[in-house]
Design a protein that fits this description.
By secondary structure, the protein is of the alpha/beta class. The chain has 9 helices and 4 strands, in the order ααααβααβααββα. A 4-stranded parallel sheet has the order 2-1-3-4, with helices on both faces.
């Protein structure tokens, strides 16, 4: 787009506490109401389309889309498109336990004829703890890096040829340089998709 050039960007977010209150209650309709409130504000500001870099709250998108004033790019669809383009066949899914227990990624991966695997229940619980208790609070430890590396290695042993970093915070400690599997960084992939859409 040229030196120092980027599309106009507007952002709105409610407090994470508002979202987490709904998530802890399993109130995805409540999450959708928050997302729609942001969508309305951004539509009034002149936005053309919307993105949400939070993987977990994509579970509420089916409640959002019928009422949204603007179209959305779906983070998991973006990742699935990239995985298929790179020739991957079986994708490991990591993220919060709400995300990894959901159909957000399986649905979009299967639509691209891609197989997928989740970490074990115990691994999902520990990954969730690391994300919510450490990474969200800007705490980065060698032990947590080693834990993710172990999970990624086990996903590779189970036949995965790539892994989704399905949480905004995971790329703070994991990337292609320290992972046993090629990584699909959902945050960056969504940002690039938004840039292409805007340009």
């Amino acid at each position: 787009m040229g030196p120092h050039t980027h599309p106009e960007v507007s952002m709105h977010t409610h407090s994470l506490a508002d979202y987490m209150g709904c998530i802890y209650r399993g109130d995805w309709a409540g999450v959708a109401e928050l997302m729609l409130a942001s969508a309305e504000k951004l539509a009034k500001s002149g936005a053309d389309f919307l993105i949400c870099p939070d993987n977990t709250i994509h579970q509420a998108l089916p409640h959002v889309l019928p009422h949204s004033p603007l179209p959305w790019l779906h983070i998991a669809e973006t990742v699935a498109t990239e995985a298929a383009a790179r020739g991957f066949k079986r994708i490991g899914i990591t993220g919060t336990r709400w995300l990894t227990d959901s159909s957000v990624y399986p649905d979009k991966l299967e639509a691209k004829h891609l197989a997928w695997l989740r970490p074990t229940t115990a691994e999902r619980d520990e990954i969730n703890r690391i994300i919510m208790d450490e990474l969200v609070c800007s705490k980065f430890t060698p032990e947590s890096v080693a834990y993710f590396q172990g999970v990624f290695g086990r996903l590779k042993d189970r036949g995965c040829d790539a892994v989704v970093l399905g949480c905004t915070e995971i790329p703070l400690i994991m990337n292609d340089g320290n992972s046993a599997l090629p990584t699909l960084d959902s945050t960056r992939l969504l940002a690039r998709a938004a840039l292409r859409r805007a340009a």
